[in-house]
Each structure stands twice: as C-alpha cells, then as structure tokens.
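Batch job 17 of 40 flagged for manual review because the log was empty.
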Amino acid sequence: MSDEILYIQFNQDYSSLGVGTGHGWSLVSNSGVEALEKIHEAAAADGVQIVERLFSSSLVAIVSLQSPRKLRVCHFKKGNEICNYSYANSILGVRLNRARLVVCLEEMLYIHNIRDMKILHTIRDTPPNPKGLLALSVNADNSYLAYPGSGSTGQVQVFDAFNLQAKIVIHAHASPLAALAFNAAGTLLATASEKGTVIRVFSTSDASRIFEFRRGMKRYASIYSIAFSPDDVFLAVSSNTVTVHVFRLQNAPEVKEETTSNSWMEWMKGALPAQVTEVWTQGRSFASITTAFQETRSVVAVTPLGGADGTKMRVLVASYDGYLYIYGLNTTEGGECPLIKQHR
C-alpha cells in the first residue's frame, strides 16, 4: 500500500481492502496470508478520500479529496462511471450492502436503492456528526442503519433502511459515540464511546445490552474500529493505543438483570460505588495484539484466512502507516496474537 493514505476500509466480508491516497485508489485481495493480490488500481490527481466496494463485485463508490460533495459509482472492470450524485455538503461516510447505499453528511443521511441508485429516503436534521459515524448491516434482509442520535450522549438511532422506517433507539453510553459495528446478520450492534474504556454489544431486536467488555482501566482511548468475526464468536477493537483487543462473545458472561440476594457478594456490590461494581460484571479481552504503531488510525477484521498452516481465524489490522498486519489467533486459549505476515 502507498504512503500517503487518506482512507482504508475492508469490504463487507473482509475479502478485500479499499485504499484511497493522494494520488488515486486501489483494491487489494485478502485471499491468503502470504501475498496480497492487487485487484485494481486507478490514478486520481485530485486524491481519493473514500473507497467502498460492494462485496467482491466490480461496483465501487468513490469520493475525491477535491470534490468532497460528489459521489461517483463506478464499474472498475469495465472502466466506466455508472452514475454520480452531488450533495449540499461534504460526504463524510458511505456504506453499501446488496440492497442499499447510504451517504452520510454532517446532519443528513441519504438512502439509495443499490439497483438503480435512486434516492429512496432522506433522514434530515440528524445531530451533528462531523466524523461521519455510521454502520450499515451487510445483511440485506436486516438492512439496518445505525447513526448517532445525540451529539452529547451515546444514543444510537437504528433505522430499517430496507423498509424505510425507524427501528429502535439504543441508549448505549453516557458519552458521545466513537464507533459502531453490526454483526453479519444485523442482529447485534457493538458500540464504543469517546471515552473508549467500555465496549457494549446490543440486540437490534429489543435494544437489550447483551455483552459489556472493558478495553482498559488506566486511561481513555480513541476507538478507531470495531469488527465482529463472521461467526459472531469474536469482536476486535483497535484504538490510538498500541493494543488491539479481541473479545470472545461465545461463553462470555451475558449482562443480566440484578436479583435480590443476601449473599456477601451482593452486599458488597450494594456498598461499593457503581463504577466499581460495573467493573466486576465486565468481560476482559480474550486475546490481544501489541502493534508496532501508536496514534495511527487503523481498521480491523477477524476472519478465516488461508495460510501455510491451513485456513484459520486471523486478525487483520490495516493501518494508515501503509501496512496490513496479519496475526494468528488461538481460538481456544487466546493470549498474545503472534504476527504472521506484514504487507506493504
């Protein structure tokens, strides 16, 4: 990958990586551990700040650095532009699945039909969202869209982008949101706030909190990326610290309603501050990665990937330093994940 990285994002099934730079954009395949296969590369003198590919198709959505209000949808194998749209303000985020394409502006969301790119619905006057934070379920049947519902708290609005109606409101955190991610089926939503100490997982059917994990105790962190594994067993989180955390959802303690008990533990929980008792109920990371970088943006993925030792679950960390790092993951014991391969 090139040095001057403006954008990095995995596609919906983690099989490829889109990279935007000051000189153009490219797609690379994550088909195996040993080598990155360059799928496509295109020059763009005005730079590319968003590159989103639809699964393994030839459809890509592109936003250039010099024309940040214009979205171009292209068929890269044929080398032609399918359509383009211009919006009132700068495009801050784009997400696609097989049914919908969503464009995020600071205070507005546009939902397009992926088949003909017509605008189906507009969500207006959303709370200020200067980072373009949004998530779109990759499952077209549960085509849920999540975006911040407040500029001062961690409220999440979940919208049914297929049926074009509000789905549910989740009160995820006391602080504003920093990251959102759906699982593949769209049944779970992971969230992190600007404090970055706690990661929560909610059900999209009833907004119930199912899991809660503590990333760290010592200080706040800026969460860059959250990703579920395709089987919903693992959840990876990257931040501005040197550590990438991997949490295990399977067999993790679920968040349950408290019941009255006369046990010593219940008495202690009642006597201690709420912040302390919360820590007791939060899960810890199952595995972790100590990266070679800090304060550098990154995106993560947890996915099966073939290598010399067969197809196994790996953790992929694509960093804005221009490298893709591939780590092993001991799915039984967890612990520190070894670096297997580093691609540039």
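Reviewer: the log was empty due to a logging misconfiguration, but the result itself is present. Residues 144 and 287 are 29 Å apart (CA to CA). Unflagging and moving on to job 18.
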